[in-house]
Amino acid sequence: MRDYKLVVLGAGGVGKSCLTVQFVQGEYLDTYDPTIEDSYRKSMEIDDKAFDLEILDTAGVAQFTAMRELYIKSGMGFLLVYSVTDRQSLGELMELREQILRIKDSKRVPMVLVGNKADLQQERVISVEEGIDVSSRWGKVPFYETSALLKSNVHEVFIDLVRQIMRVELESLDVQASTAQPVTGSLHNSLRKADTSGSLGPNVPGRVMSPVHNRSTNSFQNPGPKAIISGPSSNKLHKKRSILRPSTHLSLSSKPKEKKKKKKILAA
């Protein structure tokens, strides 16, 4: 089972807690209670793989900003939530995204743009097209409009975020494999299998969903020891040496014997 830490960020009152509680507990919060920090856990299967998700529901951007950096450092993926009834809440996400990229020191951070409270059509001030435009300017990050009240796209945003984290992990392992030795860890194998089978989901970047479209520890393989010469090949080598030594001895000892024979003939 893999442990992933997800962080829900956004302005106060956009419905971050409603989304989180609806996803984790299947309940809708009909009263507003400003959040300082709430942590939830949910175990689930995604693409036939088990996950233990820790979801951090944070305070609004304007409150407790000193704690925000700690949330970002520890998080693996981020839901950036605004309310379609509050234009300022979308504007606040611009600075928040830049802060995430700066702290993570990467342009490739798993995140999903979420326009919440899509059920409040009479109070809407931000269109779906505006959300799509922001998504495009952010590099086509996945964008959804959600409704915690109607349970619209609530599970989809969290599942999409988990799949993005899986993709980033796979890319990181592929880079390690190309610069070092082949990776043989179970995490790499399972992620690669998921990626080749298409189970990580179709074309995650740039996905747009709204209520009208609603759908209900690596190990490196060390090289073996160097080959040591042994067996028949080494025996032949020793045999050759042993044959050479006696032949040299015989050729040297044959000369004195011939001299002895000559002396005997002269004496006669």
Describe the structure.
It is a single chain. The protein has seven helices and seven strands; from the N terminus they run βαββαβαβαβααβα. It is an alpha/beta fold. It has a domain at 2-173: 3-Layer(aba) Sandwich (Rossmann fold), CATH 3.40.50. Strands 2-3-1-4-5-6-7 form a seven-stranded mixed beta sheet, with helices on both faces. α4 (128-137) links the parallel β5 (111-116) and β6 (143-145). α5 (154-179) crosses α6 (186-197). The longest helix has 36 residues, at 232-267. The chain is globular. Mean pLDDT is 76; it is low at 196-205 and 212-268. Residues 181-268 are annotated as: Disordered.
Keywords:
alpha/beta; 7-stranded mixed β-sheet; Rossmann fold; 268 residues; disordered C terminus
Described by the principal axes of the CA atoms, the overall outline is globular
Uncertain parts: 196-205, 212-268
Number of strands: 7
Q: How would a textbook summarize the main sheet?
A: 7 strands, mixed
Helix-strand category: alpha/beta
Q: Do you know the CATH architecture of one domain?
A: 3-Layer(aba) Sandwich
Instruction: Kindly provide the name of the CATH class of one domain.
Output: Alpha Beta
What is the gyration radius calculated from CA atoms? 36 Å
Q: What's the CATH H-level superfamily name of one domain?
A: P-loop containing nucleotide triphosphate hydrolases
Q: Separation of termini?
A: 105 Å
* Portion in beta strands: 15-25%
Strand order of the largest sheet: 2-3-1-4-5-6-7
Query: Can you give the helix content as a percent range?
Result: 40-55%
Query: The CATH topology of one domain, please?
Result: Rossmann fold
User: Order of SSEs, N→C?
Assistant: EHEEHEHEHEHHEH
Number of helices: 7
Q: What average pLDDT do the residues reach?
A: 76
Main location: membrane
Catalytic activity: GTP + H2O = GDP + phosphate + H(+)
Subcellular location: Cell membrane
Organism: Eremothecium cymbalariae (strain CBS 270.75 / DBVPG 7215 / KCTC 17166 / NRRL Y-17582) (Yeast)
